[in-house]
Amino acid sequence: MFRTYILALVLANALLTGAYSGRNAYLIEPADAQGLLPAIPDNLRPYLRDYITPTATLCAGFIPYKPRIVWGEPLEATLRIENLGPKDFPFDFGGDYRGIGRHERIQILVTDASGKPLNDPHANALNFGGILTREVLTPGGPCFQYKIDLTQYRTFEKPGEYTVTCSFAFEEPPTASQNAPAGPVVRSQFPLTIVDRTPDRVVAIMEEMAAQAQAAPQQDLPAILERIARFGREDAAPPLIRLAHTGASERRAAAIAVMPLVPAPAVVDAAIAALQDPDPTIRMAAAGALGTMALPRAVEALLQALPREKASVAAAVLVALGASKSDRALSALQATLDHGSSERRQAAVNGFVAYGGEAAIAALEKHVTSEDLSLRYQVILALVEKLHQPLKADWLLPILRGRTQSPEWLDTLRLVRMYAGEEAIPLLCRCLDFDAAWSGRNAWVLYQVQACPNAPPTDYIHDWNREGTPAEVERNRRTLAALKKLAEPIPSAPPRRIPPRPYLKTDPPIDFAPQLKSAQDRVEITSGFLHITLSRTSLQQTYSPSEPYHALYELAQRLRGLVQHPDRDTMLGITALQAGQLRALSPPEQPDLTGCIMLYMIYKESPAGPLQQEAEDNLNEAIRGSSESYHAAVAAFVESARKILSKGQWDRL
Q: Which of 286, 320, 289 shows the shortest CA–CA distance to 303?
């Protein structure tokens, strides 16, 4: 079994991450002294030793970040344990940190050049234990590694020459007996030199760290960049700006994200410039950085960027404005929440959460009765869970009366259960469909009722995949009748109809008006050329274009074949440029009927009358939308292909 060792101490910090521990072992002389295993390299002898246990040999020790550092560099060491075999080595780690903020089984002693111990910053803290985790080291498998912040154990006040002694007890307190030897204590001692900061040294360290950042995997990059920013301060500006202009978008964005840690005008300029980068990922990172900086110049740049941005970048700008806590930002957020598009209004809610305080609460409370129920939900969620305001039950009732069983509706049930207090059970019961004895919607509501304190009996059964038996339906009726007393008075709720939208106009005309036929266990719906049959567990569809449209759909089919079989390009004389343009069209394969089965079940389980009519309208509109969208996409696909191909190619097609 061969050891795997760190090749150079100056690179050790790039390899050492993790958090684990051990037990069931005892220490003897290093195995290499007996000639049993290959010798530990000379440069690692101060740190690593071999420990023999009843099941395995462990190579373990503490390795410093670097043996010589400049003041301000990380004061870190890493506990490293490797299993050399022959068997697995299990051990527990933890149980020794709560209340003190560090692992107490790791002991760190640091003395200065005169031998005086440095002060322990947590000498009088109480240790309340913590969670234990079971780790297993496998021979030849990953090493156990845990990075230690030495400043959690000792207070370094100035540069100098120090001696660091580290130890880790696999068992603490010891559990040794005559038949079970005590676990080993891993020990390392090494000198640590901390030198003064000088311009030349800072530049050298900056270049070293920048090289590490360029070579680091993406998951390690943010920590290295933060290290650069915190160590370099103003001097970190040049390498960070350079890193923000090189590499993939994610790496550039990571460099921009730490810019608020560097108090230099050049960094502010770089972040403002990045706000106009063509890459939206970079613009989003720049917005976040400028919001954290919270400087007047930064806020002004964000305000100027907001009108020209769309989608996710605009959302990032709004959140950044909130994080800046600027009065000017507050005005922009208020205007967006009052008059912006639906997407921007929801982003403005997150901006107010970032802003915080009474002004944000007052602005959001103006919209708890919004007719845009999705916005209302976002506002209430922000007020209750993020700004810790009391919940008023009437805010949520219009959402709870909804029929869609969407994620927002389901989460609204949770909000009522968690924050409505004694009003939770009556409010939830008011949302039940008392005339629907077999209803998935009722099942969701009653699931939350059951989780409330002092919940009433809720003997209600439902299976989404089948109809209820007569006995089950009768039992559910009795349960609903009993719960109805808790819901009184039951508020009236007029059905919410989807606003009619214009029909797709075609030439010749296509009748997209949905025609629904209902049977006991299914429905059939026709809209345009689309005919579907829906049940609880299945969806069948046919698509039959009328005679005037046969040619269009045959052309679409040939074009799909052309896209899927590039070998036909030569036959039609299609160039590489044309082939690329055709493949970029992404023609639809069939109508998108996502969610239709759920809409069918909502329709099937809604009480007869206005509520069932509402559910029928929702189902019909979804089918009509799918039918119209598919036909429009096919027509657009053929027309786009016509513009790409020459007349001769089109004729041969």
A: 320
Given CA atoms 166, 168, 173, 177 in this order, what sign does their dihedral have?
A: negative
pLDDT at residue 460, rounded to an integer: 93
User: Strand pairing of 530-534 and 160-169?
Assistant: unpaired
Measure Cα distances from 580 to 335, 341, 374, 586, 641 in Å.
44, 36, 40, 11, 11
d(CA 56, CA 37): 13
Angle at 179 between CA 173 and CA 181, to 5 degrees: 45
The DSSP string of 503-548 is PPP-SS------EEEE-SS-EEEEETTEEEEE-SS-EEEEE---GG
**Cα angle for residues 376, 380, 386 (degrees, 5° grid):** 140
What is the DSSP-derived secondary structure letter of residue 430? Answer: T
State yes or no: cis peptide before 121, omega within 30 of 0: no
Q: Where in the chain is the domain with CATH 2.70.50?
A: 9-196
3-class DSSP string for 390-404: CCCHHHHHHHHCCCC
CA–CA separation, 131 vs 97, rounded Å? Answer: 9
Tokens found for residue 383: 């007020």
CA-to-CA distance for 546 and 82, rounded, in angstroms?
Answer: 72
The pLDDT of residue 420: 93
Angular region, 139: left φ>0, alpha ψ -120 to 50, beta rest? beta
- Give CA 390 to chain center in angstroms: 27
Amino acid letter at 370?
Answer: S
What is the C-alpha separation between 648 and 129, in angstroms, rounded?
A: 80
Phi-psi sector, 217: left (phi>0), alpha (psi -120 to 50), beta: beta
Return the pLDDT at 542.
95
Length of the chain (residues): 653
Structure-derived torsion over alpha carbons of residues 78, 149, 224, 325, reported in degrees to the nearest 10: 160
CB hemisphere CA count around 223 (13 angstroms)? 11
Contact 132, 95 (CB under 8 A): yes
> What's the token pair of residue 513?
């008006």
Q: What are phi and psi of 475, to 5 degrees?
A: -60, -40
Which element (helix H / strand E) includes 48?
A: strand 48-52
**DSSP letter at 384?**
I
Which CATH number fits the domain 9-196, given the four candidates 2.70.50, 2.60.120, 3.30.980, 3.30.450? 2.70.50
Q: Specify the DSSP element, H or E, that contains 358.
A: helix 357-365
Give me 613's structure tokens: 């009519």
Query: Which pLDDT does position 215 carry in this prediction?
Result: 92
Q: What is the pTM of this model?
A: 0.75
Split the chain (653 residues) into runs of 10 and give each run's mean pLDDT: 32 34 32 43 76 92 94 95 93 89 94 96 87 91 94 96 94 51 82 95 93 92 94 94 94 96 95 96 97 96 95 95 95 94 93 96 95 94 96 89 88 95 92 92 95 92 92 95 87 66 93 93 95 94 95 89 72 81 82 92 90 91 95 93 85 74
Answer yes or no: are the C-beta atoms of 637 and 585 closer than 8 Å: yes
| Residues paired with residue 11 on neighbouring β-strands, in sequence order | none
Q: Which amino acid is at 587?
A: P
Is the sign of the CA dihedral 378, 381, 386, 390 positive or negative? positive
- CA–CA separation, 574 vs 551, rounded Å? 22
> So what's the pLDDT on residue 182?
54
For residue 44, give Cα distances in angstroms to 57, 59, 81, 461: 17, 11, 13, 67
Predicted pLDDT of residue 44: 66
- Torsion sign, CA atoms 98, 102, 103, 108: negative
Nearest CA among 341, 444, 383 for reference residue 396: 383
56-74 confidence digits (pLDDT tens): 999 999 999 999 999 999 9
